[in-house]
Design brief:
This protein is mainly alpha-helical. The chain is 67% helix and 0% strand.
Length: 514
């Protein structure tokens, strides 16, 4: 799942921790907390049925209906300060889905007036500090999306201070842990050499284990009580479980056992499909995306078509290009454009059309942005100007879709056909497939060969082979060998996917320390 995908709340914060050391030391002090004005005790916080209705419509992407409901909320409950928080969710989802910088700049002006309004509320309410923190965290994510890293960092640090104070004042208020758990888990994945800087400059500290424990406690609470944020927390826990703890089966169990309604909610369909693709359930992902609601009351959601195109490409479907072209036609922004053209080019390779590949890769060079790792990787491939080997590419796609036996049958006897860089890729891909099929001795041997042969190569094969070798040893209970492999992964500096691979290696080291 790309970081620009859903669940929207907080996942992208991990982009910004590396910037902590550049922020002024005094950028977050307790005096940043907004204080209530006198004489406004009638202003209260209540997640009323009307507020809940607006919230549910927002997270179902029924944004026009939500706008009407929010207007009704302000009219009927003018003193309910939950309204500014729910309004902010509306802006947050709108910016993420539309990916329109001008819209982001316009809607960003709403943050300070909302915080000012909330500051007039009941200081004794647990929602008072929480609402301020949640609004700041949402704009931290959006500022980071548009490269405003210092603003993003400032909001994260202020939000953390608000949440910590709120936890002291209201230790049993579970929404605090919804956000603190994610922050603690993500800061726990920061490289050890930077962790002291994070703590010294911002006061933020935590571990993956701590954050996941807090989030699981929220999920358990939601199972026993009426908890408005249950779906949001369930999606967040599932993806952190996958990315930080490498627990694929557990992640899918958490997400699929909840109350999400993918047939009625395109955000739920996208979240479940994304996780399905990451856990070897590609056919299920296609089913979820094809049955996801759209049109009518639902806000346009181009990313659904992008993900459907990827899933169909992983299955080698001959019509995989159609949803990708639909994505490009409907998208207003620029994120994902380079990757979409790259995947269209790959489809041409699968279909045996080298000219079509080159035509689409020309588009990769000229349109879209390269803010995400996937878009960067697409651009790097275009600049290399090398047509992928058809068999290796088909194997890669089948593997990504979880069709491991098909991939194995396609590749296992083809080693003699390759030399040089293609031989490196052959060994790497065969090792990945062997690992998934339980052929652990063969996988370990192929991983080690890939690390040795590809350590100086700019592609990501050696780096990911080291990461996967660490995972293999961790699965076998050999923590010493796992730690060595994770550290080796961190030593390698590929041009592609470096940040994501290193983040997973850091999370692996954190797991085996606990």
């Amino acid at each position: 799942m790309r970081l620009s995908s859903f669940p929207p709340s907080l996942i992208q914060i991990c982009f910004f921790w590396a910037l902590v050391f550049v922020a002024p030391k005094n950028s977050v002090a307790n005096d940043t907390i907004l204080r209530p004005a006198r004489g406004n005790s009638v202003l209260t916080f209540e997640f009323s049925p009307l507020a809940r209705d607006a919230y549910r419509k927002i997270f179902s992407l029924r944004l026009s209906e939500a706008t009407t409901t929010l207007a009704e909320l302000r009219r009927r409950e003018p003193n309910n300060l939950i309204a500014p928080l729910v309004e902010n969710y509306h802006d947050f989802l709108t910016v993420l889905v539309n990916d329109d910088r001008a819209e982001f700049n316009r809607l960003a002006r709403n943050m300070e007036p909302r915080l000012a309004r909330i500051s007039r509320g009941d200081r004794k309410s647990p929602w008072y500090l929480f609402s301020q923190a949640e609004i700041r965290l949402q704009w931290a994510v959006l500022n980071g999306k548009y490269n405003a890293y210092l603003s993003s960092l400032s909001d994260i640090k202020q939000a953390y201070a608000l949440l910590e104070q709120n936890r002291k004042e209201h230790p049993d208020f579970m929404p605090n842990l919804k956000s603190l758990g994610v922050i603690h888990a993500l800061v726990g994945a920061v490289p050890e050499e930077f962790r002291w800087t994070v703590k010294a400059m911002s006061g933020i500290q935590g571990t993956v284990e701590q954050g996941m424990r807090e989030l699981r406690s929220v999920l358990e609470h939601a199972g026993r009580h009426d908890f408005v944020f249950e779906d949001e927390v369930r999606v967040t826990v599932a993806f952190l479980q996958l990315n930080l703890e490498n627990e694929r089966a557990e992640a899918w169990s958490i997400l699929s056992s909840g109350k999400l309604e993918p047939a009625k909610n395109p955000v739920a369909a996208l979240a479940m499909a994304s996780l399905a693709m990451r856990t070897g359930r590609n056919d299920e992902a296609i089913r979820l995306l094809e049955s996801s609601p759209e049109g009518g009351a639902y806000h346009p959601f181009p990313y659904r078509h992008f993900l459907l195109g990827i899933a169909k490409l992983n299955r080698l479907d001959p019509d995989a290009d159609k949803p990708l072209l639909t994505f490009l036609k409907k998208l207003k922004g620029e994120s994902g454009v380079k990757e979409a053209y790259q995947k269209l080019a790959w489809h041409q390779v699968v279909q045996g059309n080298e000219t079509g590949y080159r035509n689409y890769m020309k588009q990769v060079k000229s349109v879209g942005n390269d803010r995400s790792e996937s878009d960067k990787a697409a651009l790097q491939e275009a600049l290399r100007d090398e047509v992928p080997d058809t068999r290796l590419l088909r194997t890669r796609l089948l593997f990504d879709g979880g069709y491991y036996q098909r991939a194995w049958d396609l590749l296992r006897d083809a080693g003699g056909a390759y030399s040089g860089k293609q031989a490196l890729e052959y060994g790497y891909r065969l090792g990945r497939i062997a690992h998934e099929l339980g052929k652990t001795e063969q996988a370990e041997r192929l991983y080690m060969q890939t690390i040795e042969a590809g350590a100086k190569d700019p592609v990501y094969f050696a780096c990911n082979a080291a990461l996967q070798l660490g995972i293999l040893h961790e699965e076998q209970g050999n923590k010493a060998k796992a730690a060595d492999a994770y550290r080796r992964c961190l030593e390698l500096k590929p041009e592609e996917y470096r940040a994501g691979l290193h983040a997973k290696a850091k999370a692996g080291l954190e797991r085996i320390r606990s």
